[in-house]
Every structure is written in structure tokens, then in C-alpha cells.
Amino acid sequence: MDGTGVARLICRAMLPRRFITTMDDPGGLIRDLTLFDRARRFFDRWDVPASFMVVPHGEDGWSLDEADDWLDALHAAERDGHDTQLHGLDHAHCEFGPYPPVIRQLGKRDIDEILAEDTAQCGHLWRKDIHREKLEQAIGIFERAMGRRPQVFRTGALSQTPEMYEVVADLGMRYVSNAITDPRGWAYILEKYDDPGDWDPEVPPFPYQLTGRIIDLPITSEYAWYLTPEKIERHLALAKDDLRRVYEAGGVFTLVCHVQCVGADDGLSMELLGRLFDVARREYGVEFGTLAGLVADLEEGGLTNGR
Ligand SMILES: [Zn+2]
Questions:
Q1: Domain containing 245: what range?
Q2: Following DSSP, what letter does each residue of the chain receive, concatenated?
Q3: How far is the CA of 149 from the centre of ligand 1 (A)?
Q4: Which residue(s) pair with 23 in the sheet?
Q5: How much distance in Å is there from the Cα of 307 to the middle of ligand 1?
Q6: CA of 29 to the centre of ligand 1 (A)
Q7: How far, in Å, is the centroid of ligand 1 from the Cα of 12?
Q8: What is the pLDDT of residue 16?
Q9: Any idea what the CATH number is for the domain that residue 126 is in?
Q10: pLDDT of residue 15
Q11: Torsion angles phi and psi, residue 285, rounded to 5
Q12: What spacing in Å lies between the alpha carbon of 156 and ligand 1's midpoint?
């Protein structure tokens, strides 16, 4: 079957309307457990399970498998229906390759200039053998910490090379979540409200065959990054527009948010996300779920049974 056929089947698989919440950066990047606990309790209050994209390693040799407080928190979260997946190794600069344009634009300079600088600084590390070393270390730490291998890999700030995906598959992983359907969320971060662009035509709003061996579970967008009260209505309107379009396309709405924002004590990200959960539940009757649940359904023949 060709890629289009697979995409069509996967697309059909997504009924009923699915809403997946992923939250990036807890662990090696954002080690403050207070932020994580506050975010986790927020999801619990809304009865929304989340996939926590955990950074397994960090500066000064911090390692998830040796951090008892984090192990307790993540295992407790999983017992309560949340999910843990893998987010980079250290989340270091350009760890697994260059950043895509949507991320580079946040540098507020010419994106080609940024690419040239990143390549000069890190390009010698974007090799298959080094990708493999890093990913093996990341998977090893995750496995010792969680007692199982991760099912889904997302790199820090979506840094990537084609060779990295070969390594992911060589190490037995089949799923990544490393592409963005609606880059407008990042244009909104830069307050480019008048000319935010549109969806990336290369990234469908449902799981798709990225390479022969890898399926991408694409991120729809980010709406709740360091908000101010003035931004909330606009960003929420964008999220609602994406909800409608994703479900019209029979896709999977896959939110990305960040622990440093959801767990912040200003409560602004929580306000936006709470209102979004409410709309999704009331107007679309969504089924909230995790990446692990989505993978399980894809693996269990959900491809053809109308689920
Ligand atoms: Zn991240």
C-alpha cells in the first residue's frame, strides 16, 4: 500500500473525535517539580489525561532514573491515567539536527542566518553514529526510569535530520511526534496576528507515514506559550479554528503545551487550556486521550475498524 493509502486508513481510524494533550519539557530541562505537580493537578481537575514528554537527562549529570522525586511523580501520574513519552536526551541546542523554520523564526532574525550559525556550531554532531549514541542513552535512561521503553519520540524544539529518523527506526521505535500541522501558533507567539500564514500542506492533521518505517503523530499547534491576559482571546480563537478544521478533516487534535507555562502561577495558560477543553467537550464531544492510547489503537487494528 502506498503512503496515501496508509494515510487514508489511519485517517478513517481516528473516529470518534480525539483530543490528545502533550506537555513538553518536564525532567532534565524543567526540573522544578512544583511546576509539574501544578500542571498535573490542573489536568486532573479537568479529567484530561496528558502525555508528559520527559527530558531524560540534563546539565550537571542529572538523570531521570536517579531522581527519586521525579520517579515517584511520574509513576503516580501514570497510575492515574497519564502517560510518559521521550523528549530528546538533554534538550541541548540543536541536539538532533537543525531546527525547522517554524522554530527558527522565534530567534527574530533571518532564519537562514540562524541555520548557518547553528550548522557552524553543531553541524559536526549531526551524524548518524552520534544520533544513535544519544538516542540509545535517552532510551536507556527512560527504560530504567519507567520500566518500559518509550513508544513516541519528540526531539527538543523539533531539531531533526533525515538520518535521525533512520536511527529511531533502527532502535526499534516506530512513532515520532515531530511535525507541526498549524505553524500559526508560533506566528501568534511572535504576535504576527495579521499575517500568520496557514497550515503546512506537508503535515496532515492525522497520523501519517513519515518514512517507510516511521509514523508521525503530528502536533496540531501550541496556543498557551507565555500568555498575557490580552492574548488569550486571540489564541483561543486560533485553537477553536484548528479544532473545527481538524475534525472536519477526520483528524486527531494533538495539543502541545509546556510545563513551564501550564505550571506557572499566573494561571494564564491554564485559563486558555481549560476553556479549550470545555469547548472540545461540549461542542465536539471529544474523547480525551494520550499518545500511548493512540498508538495502542493504531497497533490493535484501529486502522480499519472505524475506531
Ligand atoms: Zn521541548
A1: 3-299
A2: --HHHHHHHHHHTT-S-EEEEEEEEEETTB--HHHHHHHHHHHHHTT---EEEEE-B-GGG-BGGG-HHHHHHHHHHHHTT-EEEEE-SS--TTTTSPPPHHHHGGGSS-HHHHHHHHHHHHGGG-SHHHHHHHHHHHHHHHHHHHSS--SEEE-GGG---HHHHHHHHHTT--EE---BS-THHHHHHTT--SS-----TTS-SS-EESSSS-EE--B-B---SS--GGGHHHHHHHHHHHHHHHHHTT-EEEEEEEHHHHT-TT-HHHHHHHHHHHHHHHHH--EEE-HHHHHHHHHTTTTTS--
A3: 19
A4: 52, 257
A5: 30
A6: 8
A7: 30
A8: 81
A9: 3.20.20.370
A10: 64
A11: 55, 40
A12: 4
Q: Mark the ranges of the chain whose per-residue pLDDT is less than 50.
A: 1, 303-307
How far does residue 89's CA lie from ligand 1's centre (Å)? Answer: 10
Q: Quote the ligand 1 centre to 55 CA distance (angstroms).
A: 8
Count the Cβ atoms, other than its own, within 10 Å of residue 172: 9
Number of structural domains (the chain) is: 1
Give residue 9 CA to ligand 1 midpoint distance, Å. Answer: 30
Which pLDDT value is given to residue 305? 31
Query: Over the stretch 97-131, which tens digit does the pLDDT of each residue have?
Result: 999 999 999 998 999 999 999 999 999 999 999 99
Q: How far is the CA of 50 from the centre of ligand 1 (A)?
A: 15
Q: Ligand 1 centroid to 14 CA: how many Å?
A: 26
- For residue 54, how far is its CA from the centre of ligand 1 (angstroms)? 9
**Distance of CA 194 from the midpoint of ligand 1 (Å):** 27
pLDDT at residue 100, rounded to an integer: 97
93 belongs to a structural domain: yes
Q: How far is the CA of 180 from the centre of ligand 1 (A)?
A: 14
pLDDT value, residue 306:
34
304 Cα–ligand 1 center, Å: 33
Q: Is residue 307 part of a domain?
A: no
10 CA to middle of ligand 1, Å?
Answer: 27
Whole-model pTM?
Answer: 0.94
